[in-house]
């Protein structure tokens, strides 16, 4: 199931400046994992140390007007599934109070995700306050709770909150219930594998508060059927607003675009070799959600090269519009495919073994679409010419030079080595010079003209 996510990478805190009254901003309440597993090591530090440092830094970066609360679980009793404590009340929370409280927490107990969420939601129910809840956990539920059900039921009841969940060092198969809960809470599930990633996702989570409009445009990035992480930036083509961005995290991502027409630019973030893609003319509305799939699927070109109707070995290059080589391959006497980014290309083909003035070809303006195969074919023509030099009825060694008459271009050459020499040539008229070497090098060279026809063989013997 695709988790619904609400995320903008544009950290628009300008409206939350120091002069703004606290009552204008809904609280952010952090639920902090203080279970025993937080003593686990990452990058030479315990996860507890990393989390305290990064969370403290993220809290200090929040606007001065932001109300902040802190709830911890698992820090007082080793086996208590109800060990949840409100360390800093959001109504009076300050940055200093949060950072001080974080320093006092020592991981010890269980991971009651559902119960801790229930306690925070109950406080919102009682106070009739809306809030952003950010849950940081390094483990899955250990107390038989169902956090997804807890969050979904609270939303059905009408309690106003947005819930983001950060999985710190979790495995892929441990995230399903957390993604479900973030989805139900109209928030985002984030993976954080180290300190850097934790800082990044905390910045993003704290910027996507319950005070922001719900997403009205969803995007999903995929390559060859597999979702990928991509940064999607929307450019307003009408009102020319500042660009608005969202990160997909290998899932469906929602962001709010004020009603207008946008161009979307999507850039892969996973070391992929595919290029940025652009989708034009995306219209957003306040009253409905618009979805846009972003396909990074490579397109394939399938090339069949033949000579006189038979499959032929050729060296092939696929060049993008800037002239950069996107793919290169040899056909080796069989049709071959190459995958490239969707776009318009030039394909160059160099026939192997054939000699003449028509051994190279270019096919321009080849449109290659994503997740599609574009078939191409090119046919070369050739005939054979056998050249032999003899003295007294016996073959001798000689140097042979072949030039195309019309262009005057030297196209082939070789030695007969006392047995004659065969050339595979494009159809045409050729000037052939034969110069004896070795014991017969004193004999004068001879030049003849030959006609090579498609699919036919011609043979010439010169007597010296």
UniProtKB/TrEMBL annotation:
PROSITE patterns linked: VWFA
Residue ranges crossing the lipid bilayer per the database entry: none
SUPFAM superfamilies on file: vWA-like
Domain of life, source organism: Bacteria
Occurrences of domain VWFA (ranges): 27-210
Protein name: VWA domain-containing protein
Organism: Algoriphagus aestuariicola
């Amino acid at each position: 199931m695709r988790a619904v996510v609400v995320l903008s990478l544009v950290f628009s805190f300008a409206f939350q400046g120091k002069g703004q009254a606290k009552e204008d901003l809904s609280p952010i309440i952090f639920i902090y994992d203080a279970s025993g597993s937080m003593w686990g090591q990452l990058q030479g530090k315990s996860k507890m140390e990393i989390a305290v440092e990064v969370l403290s830094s993220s809290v200090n970066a929040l606007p001065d007007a932001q109300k902040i609360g802190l709830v911890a679980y698992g820090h007082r009793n080793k086996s208590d599934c109800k060990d949840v404590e409100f360390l800093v009340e959001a109504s009076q929370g300050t940055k200093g109070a949060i950072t001080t409280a974080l320093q006092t927490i020592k991981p010890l107990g269980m991971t009651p995700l559902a119960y801790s969420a229930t306690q925070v939601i109950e406080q919102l129910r009682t106070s009739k306050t809306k809030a952003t809840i950010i849950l940081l956990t390094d483990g899955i539920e250990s107390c038989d709770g169902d956090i997804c059900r807890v969050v979904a039921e609270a939303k059905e009841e009408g309690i106003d909150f947005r819930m983001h969940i950060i999985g710190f060092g979790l495995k892929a198969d441990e995230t399903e219930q957390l993604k479900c809960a973030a989805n139900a809470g109209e928030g985002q599930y984030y993976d954080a594998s180290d300190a850097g990633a934790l800082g990044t996702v905390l910045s993003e989570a704290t910027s996507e508060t319950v005070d922001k409009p719900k997403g009205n445009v969803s995007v999903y990035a995929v390559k060859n059927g597999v979702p990928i992480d991509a940064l999607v930036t929307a450019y307003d083509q009408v009102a020319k607003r500042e660009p608005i961005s969202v990160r997909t995290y290998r899932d469906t991502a929602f962001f709010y675009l004020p009603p207008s027409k946008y161009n979307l630019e999507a850039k892969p973030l996973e070391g992929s070799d595919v290029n940025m893609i652009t989708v034009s003319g995306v219209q957003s509305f306040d009253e409905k959600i618009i979805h846009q799939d972003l396909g990074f699927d490579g397109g394939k070109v399938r090339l069949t090269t033949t000579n006189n109707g038979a499959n032929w070995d050729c060296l092939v290059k696929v060049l993008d519009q800037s002239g950069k080589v996107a793919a290169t391959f040899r056909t080796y006497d069989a049709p071959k495919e190459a995958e490239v980014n969707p776009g318009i290309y030039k394909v160059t083909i160099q026939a192997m073994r054939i000699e003449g003035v028509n051994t190279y070809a270019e096919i321009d303006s080849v449109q290659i679409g994503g997740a599609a195969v574009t078939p191409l074919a090119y046919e070369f023509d050739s005939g054979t010419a056998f050249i032999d030099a003899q003295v007294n009825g016996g073959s001798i060694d000689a140097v042979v030079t072949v030039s195309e008459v019309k262009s005057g271009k030297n196209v082939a050459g070789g030695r007969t080595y006392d047995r004659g020499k065969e050339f595979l040539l494009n159809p045409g008229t050729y000037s052939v010079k034969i110069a004896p070497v070795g014991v017969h090098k004193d004999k004068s060279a001879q030049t003849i003209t030959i006609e090579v026809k498609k699919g036919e063989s011609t043979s010439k013997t010169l007597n010296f």
